[in-house]
Amino acid sequence: MDGGIDFQIQRDLLYEQVASQIEKLIASEALRVNDRLPSERVLAERLGVSRPVVREAIRVLSSRGLVEVLPGSGTYIRGFTAEVASKSFKDYLKFKDHLSTFEKLHEIRGTLEVEIAGLAAERATEEDIHCLEAALKGQEIHSENQDEFTSYDLQFHAALAAATYNELYEMMLAPISDLLLEFRQAAYRFNKEGAVTGALLHHQNLLEKIKQKDSEGARQVMRAHLKQAEETYQAEFQSHSNGDKPTGQD
Q1: At CB < 8 A and 24+ separation, what contacts does 154-162 make?
Q2: Per CATH, is 84-241 categorized as 1.10.443.10?
Q3: Architecture in CATH for domain 9-77
Q4: In this predicted model, what pLDDT tens digit does every residue of 136-192 receive, in sequence order?
């Protein structure tokens, strides 16, 4: 091997190194959410790099959702949030076919949301129960409106996660919320009556189990709820593959 070879890999990725340093400062909370970053010029001087390198590093961090550039104001830290994780997760899954995506999400839900239901039954306060009741009431009122109904559906599941009082459950559930919304809407379009009736029945039963602090009962209801969701989407996917039209569509 030629001993005179000059490896330039690190230099070529200098903007990534700068972005990585800023990420570490965010993770360590040396830079906090809503903090304003120094200007490009100041950062370039402190880091010993050019302003274009800093600019590219900021672009990378912005694409990851870690900073926000506000024209005329500056660049602000947005931090590691569920939204950041959600974007990365969705960016990965958008290249997968829908059936494969749903099967993977359902597998995750089978582990995650069943345990969430059980813990919510053990730990939910009166305030948590009020939040669940409000989400369920929203579904009942807006059962004829796809967007509102499915939005309240997500709120119900988010309220369950909040009732565990373990923020990691909320953080793990939040990134898949947008993807789950897409599947819920597909189920609603395919079989509105079945989707509405099934969701309301299972949510009503879940709420009762939580009020009774019946953790195992809540887990059983959630398993049944997820099983119905899987069967509905599988049927919708098969119908779509065969060229059929969703129920109620001309």
Answers
A1: 154/180, 154/181, 154/184, 156/132, 156/203, 157/113, 159/128, 159/131, 159/132, 159/135, 160/113, 160/116, 160/117, 160/120, 160/132, 160/206, 161/116, 161/120, 162/128, 162/131
A2: no
A3: Orthogonal Bundle (1.10)
A4: 999 999 999 999 999 999 999 999 999 999 988 988 887 777 677 877 887 788 778
